[in-house]
C-alpha cells in the first residue's frame, strides 16, 4: 500500500480505503487483523462488500481470498455483522421522526363507534368444523 507495496487480493480502490484508515503495509494489516481492518473501512463511510473481508483474511493468510475455508468465512461474517451493528448510523441514514397520526372517520361513524360484527374479520367462535 505504500508506494511499491501491494497486498495480495487487494485492488487499487480497496488499497486506497485501507490507506485512508491507517493501514499502509502488510505489517499494519497483520497487526490490526482482517476484521478490524474491514470495520475501519466501514466506519470511514466506505461500502465494502464481504469480498474485501475475505481478501483481507487471504492477504494475512497468504492465499487467494477464494481459498478461505467456508467455516472461517462464516466466522468472519458473523463477527463483522456484530461489529458493524455497533457502528453509529450516518446522519443521512437515521430514521426520520414519525409524522403526526391523523385519524380518518368514515361517513356515518361517530368517533366512539366501533365497527359491528363481520367488519373486517370473521368471528372464530362462529365457525365450526362439523
TrEMBL record:
Pfam families: TfoX_C
Signal peptide (residue range): none
Positions of the UniProt region annotated as Disordered: 91-130
InterPro entries: TfoX-like, TfoX_C
Protein origin, superkingdom: Bacteria
All residue ranges annotated as the TfoX C-terminal domain in the record: 6-77
Protein name stated in the entry: TfoX C-terminal domain-containing protein
Amino acid at each position: 500500500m505504500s508506494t511499491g507495496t501491494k497486498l495480495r487480493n487487494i485492488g487499487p480502490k480497496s488499497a486506497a480505503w485501507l490507506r485512508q484508515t491507517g493501514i499502509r503495509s502488510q505489517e499494519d494489516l497483520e497487526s490490526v487483523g482482517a476484521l478490524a481492518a474491514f470495520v475501519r473501512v466501514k466506519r470511514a463511510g466506505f461500502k465494502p462488500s464481504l469480498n474485501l473481508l475475505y481478501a483481507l483474511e487471504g492477504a494475512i493468510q497468504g492465499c487467494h481470498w477464494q481459498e478461505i475455508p467456508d467455516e472461517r468465512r462464516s466466522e468472519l461474517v458473523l463477527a463483522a455483522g456484530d461489529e458493524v451493528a455497533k457502528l453509529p448510523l450516518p446522519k443521512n441514514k437515521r430514521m426520520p421522526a414519525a409524522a403526526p397520526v391523523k385519524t380518518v372517520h368514515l361517513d356515518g361513524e361517530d368517533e366512539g363507534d366501533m365497527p359491528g360484527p363481520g367488519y373486517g374479520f370473521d368471528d372464530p367462535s362462529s365457525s365450526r368444523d362439523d
